[in-house]
Amino acid sequence: MTYHILIAEDDQDIVELLRLYLENNHFHVLTAANGKEALELLKQEKVDLLIVDIMMPKMNGYETIKAIRQTSHLPILVLSAKSLDHDKIIGLDLGADMYMVKPFNPLEVIANIKALLRRSYQFQDTTVSGTQLFKYGDLEYDPERMVVLKNGKTIPLTACELKILVKLMSSPGRVFTKSQLYEATGQEGYYEGDDDTMMVHISRIRAKIEDQPSKPRYIQTIRGLGYKFEG
Length: 231
Description:
By secondary structure, this protein is α/β, with parallel strands linked by helices. The chain folds into two domains: 4-121, Rossmann fold (3-Layer(aba) Sandwich), CATH 3.40.50; 124-229, Arc Repressor Mutant, subunit A (Orthogonal Bundle), CATH 1.10.10.10. 40% of the residues lie in helices and 20% in strands. It has helices at residues 12-24, 35-44, 61-69, 85-94, 106-121, 159-169, 178-184, 194-209; strands at 4-8, 28-32, 49-52, 76-80, 98-101, 134-136, 139-142, 147-150, 153-154, 175-176, 219-222, 226-229. Helix 2 (35-44) packs parallel to helix 3 (61-69), helix 4 (85-94) packs parallel to helix 8 (194-209) and helix 6 (159-169) packs across helix 8. It starts with a strand and ends with a strand.
């Protein structure tokens, strides 16, 4: 299977560098010079993953991510010169799956793209119980479509968010550590620095499924241990 990668980047030198490495790894490459062009291509072309810069003309990366997340679980890798933790948190909070800082190692970019594709398109191979329907209150997981619904409407979750939420829903009342939830996303090598990333994921999930995210009904924090789902 050939995966289609869309690069949204206004620096042509970076585009050509990424294209070289992507094509050498047998990916099909599409390009857009800004967020608006990227959104138009997403309507017209098959795209399996988006690489997006933050600082672009017409529509920046943050706006692009926000627009995509309204309707799609498309894996998104941010590649930006904005290196402050604040910038990274904004990108992840809006729905990016991964955030890398320029200058970058092209081989590391390729490795992260492959990891995101594995996590996003081999969901059924993870430790999550992917065939069972879960229904709690106004929330429901549909395993055939691999979507979570609230009051019958699909919630726009990223691939990571979906895996974390379904992992929690699979065992209501059970406390999962941050490490266990991290592993549920298909990643390996958890370390303490990943705590902040998991907290961002949980915060984003709550914002999408809870009526009052500051007073969550479903996802409870168990201080010093992790999180549990209340059915």
